Protein: DUF4307 domain-containing protein
Amino acid sequence: MSTTPPTGRALPEGRYPEDRGRTPSRVLAVTLTLLVVALGVGIAYLGYTKFTTPDVDGTLVSFEIVSDDRVDVRLSVTRDDPSEPAVCIVRSRSRDGSETGRREVLIPASPNGTEDIRTEVITSAPPGLADLYGCSLTVPEYLTRG
Structure:
């Protein structure tokens, strides 16, 4: 079987494979489509987990520097399910930004969706400010032991 390319010259028989309906192109198109769909699903999942409302949310309401080794902190913590205990980490930082104290605060289960929590952080150097590092529903066991 002789094929004639667009240039008009005949190609020698047996040297080139026969055209079989562009099957490799079809496989490539399906593969790329599946790859794009999988990538889209992955991006949607990451967006959902990053931008949805967390199960527990804490806000630093105020802090007061009491002395060179203590800062008092007030938090507002909101949980979707107040029957679950939560933990928040508050910390103190010096004026240069280095961490000078840290405390894990247990927020016990309660009937209230939002709790007003007050605690103190003991510092190793004079504090410049206090901040809320974060909150979680994964409470370490040592905080719940009686």
About this structure: The beta strands are 56-67, 70-79, 86-93, 99-107, 114-122, 129-136. The longest strand covers residues 56-67. The mean pLDDT is 86. The chain has two domains: 24-53, 56-143.
